[in-house]
Amino acid sequence: MSGYLNDIQVYGPGFLTAAWTVLWLTLLTIVLSWVFGLAAALGQRSDLAWVRAIAAFYVWFIRGTPALIQIFIVYFGMPQLGIRLSPYTAGVLALAINSGAYVTEIIRSGLQAIPKGQMESSLALGFSQRATMRTIILPQVARIILPAITNEALSTLKNTSLLSTITVVELTLYAQTLISATFRPFDFYIAVAIIYLVLTTILTQLAAFFERRYARLY
Amino acid sequence: MTEEAPAPLLKLRNIRKSFGDLEVLKGIDLDVAKGEVVSIIGASGSGKSTFLRSINAIEPADGGTMDFDGQQFDFDRASGLYPTARQLQALRARIGMVFQSYNLWPHKTVLENVIHAPMNVLGQSRAEATEVAGALLDRIGLYDKKDSSPQRLSGGQQQRVAIARALAMKPRLMLFDEVTSALDPELVHEVLMLMASLAKEGMTMLLVTHEMSFARDVSSRVLFFDRGVIGEEGAPSKVLRDPESPRLRQFLHSILHDDLSQAGAGKGLIQ
């Protein structure tokens, strides 16, 4: 037992740093994926055919290819076109583009769930389409999609482990480094799993808090 | 030396609307004077709701012109005078509309529903909007519900809040689109009473309705819509009691005398 206590003293700070990296990579990715998802979901309803086409292609392409390949394209592929990104930037960008496609579909289904009359009653009072979207439609969509968005955020958090393949020192890569030095894969992978579990639990609790707050408003 | 009548508040000429190949409005002309209450009746699919929705351009007409409160609109896209989005917004801000399905916003309280447009469209301060809204909610007897979610209210209460929400914009004209059709029978009365009191105060109103007693007792004029045109119009006593066209007679018969005891008579259905 004292061996494990010693381990925590030795490796704890390193794991904490790696966990922190996972956390901020995840938060950045989530926010960016919402931006992409909202833009594409609104793009799907655009009056302009080419905007709808871009939005449709985006969702089709991203959902139809593995996240790992998308990460490789952004990190290893883009330099060939003269765009060189740091592993962290490339990682966040690739994951956000990936998650954004799923967020697009989530927002789309949320928009479909709002009765047409909600838009009409707002337009009838003199609001613009844009103001109606912002103040009437999207706040209601946000509440409906919260559970699905939480799921997507959990996926994003776990998908950060894929960034170990492009030298982002997050939890998985950090553990792998330790394992290759200590030959203790069971101990360290279990440790990593537990830390992911703590992080996902925090995220779930946070979502539950918002869900309760929304529920009170209705 | 003829005395000139005051210009109508609303003047529509040759209003047309199609959905694809289906021509729903086939050139409607209508003048509505200030303070008039015009009831529109007709079978479903006759174009009456579409007509109402074309007036505030929530479903803009494809052709025809409109004068409203001194402003001209041309809905012919080829004319080059088709109103801009901003002009349509300004038009809608001056016309109140109430819908069959209330369409209150569930994520806002009753009070917030009423003050949202006055604050954000008319630019009223929260204090000013709240004062106006308070008076309106008081009038409809729902002041004590101001902080409730609209979903906690009965259908009749929700519809009265929807009317208050429209009135808070101080509209020059009110459009009512079958506003009692979704209500339980015992809740219809409270909404009609509110509308009747508005009519009495001189509010100009256009309503699509199946409430024949309301059309008869409250409106100054009744229009019978038939297959995209105004089939017959006139004073309620004339149109509802002494219809000229067979179509209107048939329509009135079907809604006023739906005596079900005749159903299946002579066909031996219940033997």
Protein described:
The complex is a heterodimer of chains A (218) and B (271). With 218 residues, chain A is mainly α. Chain A has a single domain (2-217), classed as MetI-like (MetI-like fold, Orthogonal Bundle), CATH 1.10.3720. In chain A, 83% of the residues lie in helices and 0% in strands. Chain A has eight helices and no strands. In chain A, helix 1 crosses helix 4 and helix 5 packs antiparallel against helix 6. Chain A starts with a helix and ends with a helix. Chain B is of the alpha/beta class. Chain B has a domain at 105-171. Chain B has helices spanning 48-55, 85-93, 110-120, 126-139, 155-167, 185-200, 212-218, 236-241, 246-256; strands spanning 10-19, 22-32, 37-42, 63-68, 71-74, 95-98, 173-177, 205-208, 221-226, 229-234. In chain B, the strands form two sheets. Chain B has a six-stranded mixed sheet, sandwiched between helices. Chain B has a four-stranded antiparallel sheet with strand order 2-1-4-5, covered by helices on one side. In chain B, helix 3 packs parallel to helix 5. The longest helix of chain B is centred in the C-terminal third of the chain and has 16 residues, at 185-200. Chain B is globular, with a radius of gyration of 20 Å. Residues 265-271 of chain B have low confidence and may be disordered. The chains are: A mainly alpha (218), B alpha/beta (271). At the A-B interface, helix 5 and helix 6 of A face helix 2, strand 6, helix 3 and helix 5 of B.
Give a short summary of the structure.
The complex is a heterodimer of chains A (218) and B (271). Chain A has 218 residues and is mainly alpha-helical.
Uncertain ranges of chain A: none
User: Could you give the order of the helices and strands of chain A?
Assistant: HHHHHHHH
CATH level 3 topology of chain A: MetI-like fold
Provide the β-strand percentage band of chain B.
Answer: 15-25%
Q: What is the mean predicted local confidence, pLDDT of chain B?
A: 91
Record the strand order, biggest sheet of chain B: 6-7-8-3-9-10
What is the CATH homologous superfamily assignment of chain A? Answer: MetI-like
Structural class of chain B, please? alpha/beta
Succession of helices and strands of chain B: EEEHEEHEHHHEHEHEEHH
